[in-house]
Amino acid sequence: xxxxxxxxxxxxxxxxxxxxxxxxxxxxxxxxxxxxxxxxxxxxxxxxxxxxxxxxxxxxxxxxxxxxxxxxxxxxxxxxxxxxxxxxxxxxxxxxxxxxxxxxxxxxxxxxxxxxxxxxxxxxxxxxxxxxxxxxxxxxxxxxxxxxxxxxxxxxxxxxxxxxxxxxxxxxxxxxxxxxxxxxxxxxxxxxxxxxxxxxxxxxxxxxxxxxxxxxxxxxxxxxxxxxxxxxxxxxxxxxxxxxxxxxxxxxxxxxxxxxxxxxxxxxxxxxxxxxxxxxxxxxxxxxxxxxxxxxxxxxxxxxxxxx
Length: 308
Prior knowledge:
Order of helices and strands: HHHHHHHHHEHEEHEH
Number of helices: 12
Structural class: alpha+beta
Shape: elongated
Distance between the termini: 57 Å
Strand content: 5-15%
Number of strands: 4
């Protein structure tokens, strides 16, 4: 077996295992926010958990049963329309959240935190839910529900995923008035939706933030090899110092923000006198970073006489 192929395969397996562990952690956090803070205080949330909450408030049926049942239907639809590649981690996420809900409900039976402080319960519950979803999304996972609906609609109609999810969540939270008969609780539901979305964005964006380095050092080869060992590419550029007029080498490096400290330590250990410039970048696309997504122009597929 080729050693390079073996290393690559091992790295892929390790990455997949990490993803599944992070999805499990995210679903555990979501279940704590939902069942410990939101449900006991009659506070709504969006998506399939919102539908399960409405059924729970109306009938007392445990949320995990409704959540699992609705998602099974959506997952079967997803597999048929979107394929297994989209659905496999979503199926795992749904099973993990269902299991976590059962465990957390057993452990917290009879517990009711912040009983007379619905706003604090709303913020804390939404924070747990948002962090949990953010961790799962960062690991390419999902909790199922409205994102499946959004992906299916987006496949056939030119409407963004965010807009579809916002419409679904608005309808679900507003309809909870028919059960709760309290507009204040509905408002708390929208606050929950906002806080949850905010926390989700913070977690996902922080995981994707990238930085770039320009490094000038006489020991550029050693620094470059050490950075390569982190599985980050290094581009060496020939430059000339305007003040000294001497040719020198400058390294250009793109890395995840969380790797910045490690890169600084490498440079400091090898050449403490190196000149370093670090800056944040809006987006990095390509191998090891985000995938470039370009929306196809429908006009380009039309005959010339129809475009005119």
